[in-house]
Amino acid sequence: MPLYHNEDQAMLADTARGFIAEEGNIAKQLRHWRDRNCKDGFGHGLWKQMAEMGFTGMLVEEADGGLGMGHVEAGIVLEEIGRNLTPSPFLTSSVLAATALKHGSDDLRGRYLPGLIAGDSVAAVAIDETAKHRPERITTRAEKSGNGFKLSGAKSFVIQGASADMIVVAARTSGSDEDADGITLFAVPKDASGMSHDAVRLVDSSMATHTKFDGVELDGDTVIGEVDGGRAVLDAMLLAGRVGAAAEGVGVARGAMDMTVDYLKQRKQFGKLIGEFQALQHRASHLYSEVEIARAVTIKAQQLLDAGSVNAELMASVAKAKVAKTARLAVQEGVQMHGGIGMTDEYDIGLYMKRDRALAEFLGDAYYHANRVAELSGY
Amino acid sequence: MADLEAFRTETRSWLEANCPPEMREPVRGEDDIYWGGRRATFKNDAQKAWLEACVAKGYTVPMWPKEYGGAGLSPAEAKVLREEMGRINARPPLSSFGIWMLGPALLHFGTEGQKQRFLNEIARGEIRWCQGYSEPGSGSDLVSLQTFGEDKGDHWVVNGQKIWTSYADQADWIFCLVRTDKTDKYQGITFMLFDMASEGVTTKPIKLISGSSPFCETFFDNVAVPKSYGDDCPAYVGTINRGWDVAKYLLGHEREMISGADGGERAAAIGAAMKRHAAKTGDDIDPVLRAELAMFDVDAMAYAAMGEKFLDEIKVGKAHPAQPNMMKYAGTELNKRRHELVMAVGGSRALEWESEATENGKPSKAWLRTKANSIEGGTSEVMLNVIAKRILDLPGA
Predict the structure, then answer these.
(1) What's A251's domain CATH number?
(2) Is A3–B291 a contact, with Cβ atoms under 8 angstroms apart?
(3) Crossing angle of helices A106-118 and A44-52, rounded to 10°
(4) Is the predicted pLDDT of residue B258 greater than 80, yes or no?
(5) DSSP letter at B242?
(6) Which residues from B are below 8 Å from A when comparing CB atoms?
(7) pLDDT number for residue B261
């Protein structure tokens, strides 16, 4: 398969670019909701519109009412979301939760997928337990209780946790904290008694929660996949999410780069456009190279994932790490080359810097994934 | 697709029958590479047999048309051939600047007579070419070149000096940028072809920091270059005074080649191999070095994906025409980093310049050689200039 978009994908990219630039742009979404101190951190109206565009159910099988598309297609939408810093539940609901639900029972899929596809409901994922992403260690426990389970523990960095109608929770049902086996995934409904959220606004104006589970009673039918066999589901969900986050990061990097290159062509100092200075030209050219490379490896990871390749996991970590480093470079160069106005809230470039910080941290930063690349490579 | 699979099966059995076992061993030294030319000698019978089999099949230049010595393969078929050769570690049967550089220029700009003669000679490995571009005063600013060809009617008299002429001392012919009009900087250069055995041509190898001498100074002292080598076979490519167009076209090819975009070892991860290497010498890899190796592997594997994308896009004309500059920049900078890390893992052993264990300084010589990657064929700084101007469209670039 060639490493560029085919005709259908190119058409989707045109549609997504136009739609998200129009409806999901910074003024209409990110600033709008931020300045109103919105408790969700995103707009439900846009989520509904995304459903009408067919985006929300892209990764859901056709038999379940979705479009049965792949991660290349989801990545196309995510890149535009990244470019416009569009706050939305797309990555967590339509990529992560939708991937987990693929492994769920008919009953669970019927319970949650229609609302998600229709843009009427949103889902969140609760994985991290400490400040750094470390899904290898899971201490939140679900003990057998009657026909179901009793869930106890705490999760953090649950994006849009307080707004979610359902949260996918990774918990331990057997073994010790570091064991690979003994994990079970649960679809926890928002009204589950004993679940409480401490909602916090993050640096990029998105909302996340510290979520506590204090003996939450769950029916047996909330289990996604097999009891004690949740690691495979969790890994599949993480893989999809990391490749998706990489695509969004490519969008952030490209957005910041384009804005900066435009600025170099407008701003005058010393009687010249600052883009005439070779010191800045070389930095912009270097950034361009890095962004092109980051985008290429992200598409590579999407294709490998769609093809079910054994190399998808390695390439997903390569992509996540490369994009994290590249988007970081893009936003730092962006603010620096904008000079003083880059520090102002009025200009958008600073918003890119904030978004990059949060997105890079989500599902593992460049250090986590570079380490994973080493481990998967055998050193 | 079915045709391609049939081609793969056929290629596999052809290689099985025709590629001698000795030609499936890794290249260990310069004499394992066959460059062709009037003075070339084969290292062994296997090298000769492999070349002859490939010449007969058109596989020294698989994508060139059959009438010029190629096999007329489509890009997809050529990819299959590369993959199948890679699968058995088959060495390239013939390496030459004729194949990589002059060939593409002649295919694009050459006359039928030039193609018939020169391309067939290149494909058969009969003539070894060198490239006369840089001059002592014209490196990055190549277009300022001064080597002058004085018009004498049916011939030019060429005087001047070239530098960094790769293997000029072993080459039979040269493709050379010569100023033929001193009043026009860009439209005053002619892309000439002439015999290195001509009277007045001398070469002097330049010893590099790696100890080897792949480059020469090349001097032209009243060299008479005829304007034609026969019917439809002029001694210049393209048009007189418009050689810069040919040179620019060729620089794109050269940058693509140096970039290592076609994969191979330049785009490969090294961490796992470095760990095995360290284990052999009884060393541990320091955690901070391991971290750098991991970051390098991320960049290398990402660059490999970029190389794949770039080649896929070139095939269908989707790549930005200036993209080879980006590939050259990123690929060469990556390769320099690779060898810095290899030296770090190698420790004091890698410093040995004359020892059996290092096959006389292989690691350090390779490390030093990479420093030229970001200079030859256009420096990294020139690449960044070109990206700024042609891709980012920055003002005054």
Answers:
(1) 1.20.140.10
(2) no
(3) 100
(4) no
(5) B
(6) 269, 271-272, 274-275, 285, 290-291, 293-295, 297-299, 301-303, 305-306, 308-310, 312-313, 315-316, 318, 323, 326, 329-330, 381, 383-385, 387-388, 391-397
(7) 65
- Would an 8 Å CB–CB cutoff place A258 in contact with chain B? no
User: Which candidate, A205, A279, A277, A228, places its Cα nearest to that of A39?
Assistant: A205
CB contact under 8 A, B306 and A276: no
Report d(CA B349, CA B280) in Å as an integer: 12
Q: Which two tokens stand for residue B335?
A: 């390769």
Together in a domain, A181 and A313? no
- Is A132 in CB contact (< 8 Å) with chain B? no
pLDDT band of B266, cuts 50, 70, 90: low
Q: Could you tell me if the ipTM is greater than 0.90? A: yes
Q: Does residue A270 lie within any of the structural domains?
A: yes
Sequence-ordered list of residues with C-beta below 8 angstroms from that of B43, at least 6 positions apart, any chain: B31, B32, B34
Model confidence, pTM: 0.91
CATH number of the structural domain spanning residue A36:
1.10.540.10
CATH topology for B2-95 is Butyryl-Coa Dehydrogenase, subunit A; domain 1 (1.10.540)
Strands A195-201 and A207-218: antiparallel
What is the token pair recorded at A269? 């100092």
Q: Do A4 and B388 touch (CB under 8 A)?
A: no
Closest CA to A171 of A211, A122, A209: A211
* Residue A198 bridge partners (DSSP): A210
For chain B, what are the domain ranges? 2-95, 129-244, 260-391
Residue of B nearest to A267 (CA): B395
Look at the domain B129-244 and name its fold. Answer: Butyryl-CoA Dehydrogenase, subunit A; domain 2 (2.40.110)
Q: Does A335 reside within a domain? A: yes
What pLDDT was estimated at residue B397? 67
Nearest to A252 by CA among A291, A280, A200, A310: A291
Q: How far apart are CA A184 and CA A276, in angstroms?
A: 58
Chain A residues lying within 8 Å of B299, measured CB to CB: 293, 322
Span A110-134, mean pLDDT?
Answer: 98
Across the interface, which of A272, A282, A296 has its CB nearest the CB of B309?
A296
Q: How far apart are CA A30 and CA A20, in angstroms?
A: 12
* Closest residue in B to A290 (Cα–Cα): B330
Rounded Cα gap, residues A281 and A273, in angstroms: 11
CA distances to A80, A253, A327, A353 from A280, in Å: 26, 17, 18, 19
Task: Give the one of B271, B285, B308 whose C-beta lies nearest to A3's C-beta.
Answer: B308
Domain termination site, one of A122, A153, A181: A122
pLDDT at B396 over 90: no
* Cα dihedral A276, A277, A280, A284 in deg (nearest 10): 30
HSE-up (13 A, CA, CB side) for residue B68: 24
Nearest by CB to residue A265, choosing from B294, B298, B395, is B395
Quote the Cα angle for A294-A379-A306, to 5°.
40
Containing B121, the helix (H) or strand (E) segment is helix B120-123
Burial class (CB in 10 A: 0-12, 13-18, 19+), A267: middle
Q: Are residues A53 and A130 in the same domain?
A: no
Q: Tell me, yes or no, whether A80 and A148 share the same domain.
A: no
Please identify among residues 211-250 of chain A the ones whose CB lies closer than 8 Å to any CB of chain B: none
Q: Looking at A122, A145, A160, which one is the last position of a domain?
A: A122
Task: Report how far residue A25's alpha carbon sits from residue A47's, in angstroms, rounded to the nearest whole number.
Answer: 13
Domain of residue A344 covers 232-377
Burial of A89 (0-12, 13-18, 19+ CB in 10 A): buried
Pairwise CA distance, residues A151 & A147, whole Å: 13
Phi first, then psi, for residue A308 (nearest 5°) are: 70, 30
Shortest CA distance from A4: residue in chain B = B309
Q: Which CATH number applies to B260-391?
A: 1.20.140.10
